[in-house]
């Protein structure tokens, strides 16, 4: 199996009917970096910067952050890397930072909320990212944005730091793209406004699913109760990709859904052409893509989604499609 997947490495990632699909990897630590090469991926679609903070005994200094981001960009070469700013708080507590006892940590003081309330931390991180990106292209993404104003505030920090670095004679990135994760359902109803401001979006299907179904992603008693491959989720994902395409903004998905061949199949059938997944999932997902008739999958998906929700199992339809086509 493994040998078979490594054979796929150098094949262009295209469906049987010739649609190019961009496959990227999710990463967060230096040990993940060799996977960019050995999977033959198009880059890093999600770099979880909080991992450096989580494995560290004390707050990583700016020089440590800068060094890591440089290492990551060097390893990626010309391939894009999307750095997500700190997604800490909630269940990802840092032992050396103030801890807040919260009844609903997933809904609590975490990610960009914490970042905007403690701007020193976020500013320092953004400065390190901008410095690491000096002379190259850089992509910065914010986690858990819930309203457009939060994106505006976070983006203004990037602009301010760019001005600061310019004034201090640093080499600036050639280009900075600023985008957001889409993982809070409220954003579904602000898509037009949001898309007019961002350079790109990436769907965080793990959290989006958790919040849409009000089901704790870490609680085994309920986490499998509802199906990710069901009409409410697929309709939301369809709305996102349609609006992003209409607004000519790039859209990707970096949650676990993309790491399963059947999930990736559903996403391509919905119109997604860029996915970011765990390195180990790369082979199986690429193998599925090479065999897929994307146009046919899109037609089928449109048909299934036009039926009343719950008329049949979407998962079963997709599985049948995968087996017979
Ligand atoms: C997600 O929510 O889907 C996501 C990619 O972010 P994380 O899993 O780090 O919360
Ligand atoms: Mg998330």
Could you explain the architecture of this structure?
The protein is α/β, with parallel strands linked by helices and 325 residues long. Helices cover 47% and strands 13% of the residues. The protein has 15 helices and eight strands. An eight-stranded parallel beta sheet has the order 7-6-5-4-3-2-1-8. α12 (261-270) packs across α13 (282-290). The chain is globular and about 60 Å long. The mean pLDDT is 96. The site of phosphoenolpyruvate has 10 residues, from β2 and α9. Residues 46, 48, 87, 183, 204-207, 254-255 line the site of phosphoenolpyruvate (PEP).
On the 0 to 100 scale, the average pLDDT is 96
| String of helices and strands | HEHEHHEHHEHEHEHHHEHEHHH
**Widest sheet: strand ordering:** 7-6-5-4-3-2-1-8
Quaternary structure annotation: single chain
**Beta-strand percentage range:** 5-15%
H/I helix tally: 15
Bound molecules: phosphoenolpyruvate, magnesium ion
First-last Cα distance: 21 Å
User: Spans with pLDDT under 50 lasting ≥5 residues?
Assistant: none
Quick rundown:
Belongs to the PEP-utilizing enzyme family. The chain has about 325 residues and is of the alpha/beta class.
SSE topology sketch:
Blueprint: H1 2-8, E1 22-27, H2 34-39, E2 44-48, H3 50-54, H4 62-76, E3 81-84, H5 111-117, H6 119-132, E4 137-142, H7 148-167, E5 175-182, H8 191-197, E6 200-203, H9 205-212, H10 220-223, H11 231-246, E7 250-253, H12 261-270, E8 274-277, H13 282-290, H14 294-306, H15 314-324
Parallel strand pairs: 1-2, 1-8, 2-3, 3-4, 4-5, 5-6, 6-7
Helix pairs in contact: 1-13, 4-6, 5-6, 6-7, 12-13, 12-14
The structure holds phosphoenolpyruvate (PEP) and magnesium ion.
């Amino acid at each position: 199996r493994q040998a078979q997947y490594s054979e796929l490495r150098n094949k262009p990632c295209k469906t049987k009917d010739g649609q190019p699909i961009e496959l990227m990897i999710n990463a967060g630590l230096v040990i993940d970096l060799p996977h960019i090469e050995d999977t033959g991926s198009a880059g890093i679609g999600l770099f979880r910067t909080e991992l450096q903070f989580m494995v560290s005994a004390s707050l990583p200094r700016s020089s440590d952050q800068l060094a890591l981001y440089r290492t990551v960009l060097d390893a990626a070469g010309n391939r894009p890397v999307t750095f997500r700013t700190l997604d800490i708080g909630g269940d990802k507590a840092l032992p050396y930072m103030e801890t807040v006892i919260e009844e609903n940590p997933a809904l609590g003081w975490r990610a960009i909320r914490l970042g905007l309330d403690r701007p020193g931390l976020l500013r320092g991180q953004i400065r390190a990212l901008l410095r690491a990106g000096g002379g190259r292209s850089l992509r910065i993404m914010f986690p858990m944005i819930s309203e457009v104003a939060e994106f505006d505030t976070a983006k203004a920090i990037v602009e301010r730091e760019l001005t600061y670095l310019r004034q201090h004679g640093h080499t600036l990135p050639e280009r900075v793209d600023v985008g957001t994760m889409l993982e809070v359902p409220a954003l579904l109803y602000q898509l037009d406004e949001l898309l007019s401001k961002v350079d790109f979006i990436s769907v965080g299907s793990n959290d989006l699913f958790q919040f849409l179904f009000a089901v704790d992603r870490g609680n085994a008693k309920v986490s499998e109760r509802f199906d990710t491959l069901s009409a409410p989720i697929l309709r939301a994902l369809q709305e996102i990709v349609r609006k992003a395409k209409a607004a000519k903004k790039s859209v990707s998905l970096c949650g676990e859904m993309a790491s399963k061949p059947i999930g990736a199949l559903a996403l391509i059938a919905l119109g997604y052409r860029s996915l970011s997944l765990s390195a180990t999932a790369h082979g199986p997902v690429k193998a599925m893509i090479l065999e897929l008739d994307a146009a046919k999958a899109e037609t089928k998906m449109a048909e299934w989604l036009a039926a009343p929700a719950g008329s049949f199992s979407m998962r079963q339809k997709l599985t049948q499609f995968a087996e017979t086509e």
